[in-house]
Amino acid sequence: MLAIIGGSGLTQLASLDLIRREVVRTPYGEPSGALTFGRLCSQPVVFLARHGYGHTIPPHRVNYQANLWALQQAQVDAIISVASVGGIRADLCPGTLIVPDQIIDYTWGRKSTFHENSDEPVVHIDFTEPYDEAIRQRILKAGLKAGETIIDGAVYAATQGPRLETAAEINRLERDGADVVGMTGMPEAALARELGIPYAAINVVANFAAGRASSASGICFDSIDAVLRDAMGRVRGVLDHICES
Ligand code: HPA
């Protein structure tokens, strides 16, 4: 079964034929919300809204451990994360859809491993390639079928939030090699890898990153809502083809 973790702008999937909702308890506390089981193009799918169904959980307070554990309990065999980002690279303007292929982690203080009990051996996962290539290709193929242009490959910088970055911070991320910036990609991807669940992401560029818009001096929040509404509609269109790809 495929899992979809929806981010800002994607708190539900309209095309999901709802079967049931399930509140899952985990040793790590409460997930962001109930798991929503349903069918998407006749395949079983489970959906979870990362920030809660009322969008009340900020990026640094998301219980990533509980979310990933709950999805493992549901026996998912792949996870697609949908997350909005700021565009750093000049061609990644608002509305662009991207399947990233690398991550740089700038987050701190988040619980980023399932293996931290003192009576347990330390676990070092191989994270050279943080995203699962087969799932990445599946998303890209679904994009082709949906007639959507999706950029194949980008370096995702995960920042702590919840504030947006300064212009100098964005310049630093660019020097580091980052193409887009978001706040939820880590430790989600690493925890999925620890559990052995193939994981990949669709990033939606909501805004030019701080200091990168050519005209305005700051970030225009009104346009972010409109961009996300339109782009998440297109993401839903891609996901509608995911089971054929
Ligand atoms: N920075 C960090 N996270 C984001 C942004 C941004 O500009 N836009 C959407 N998520």
TrEMBL record:
Its EC number is 2.4.2.1. Belongs to the PNP/MTAP phosphorylase family. MTAP subfamily. Homohexamer. Dimer of a homotrimer. HAMAP family: MTAP. Keywords: Glycosyltransferase, Purine salvage, Transferase. This is Probable 6-oxopurine nucleoside phosphorylase. It catalyses: a purine D-ribonucleoside + phosphate = a purine nucleobase + alpha-D-ribose 1-phosphate. GO terms for biological process: L-methionine salvage from methylthioadenosine; purine ribonucleoside salvage. The lineage of its organism: Bacteria, Pseudomonadati, Pseudomonadota, Betaproteobacteria, Rhodocyclales. Although this enzyme belongs to the family of MTA phosphorylases based on sequence homology, it has been shown that conserved amino acid substitutions in the substrate binding pocket convert the substrate specificity of this enzyme from 6-aminopurines to 6-oxopurines. GO terms for cellular component: cytosol. Substrate binds at residues 183, 207-209.
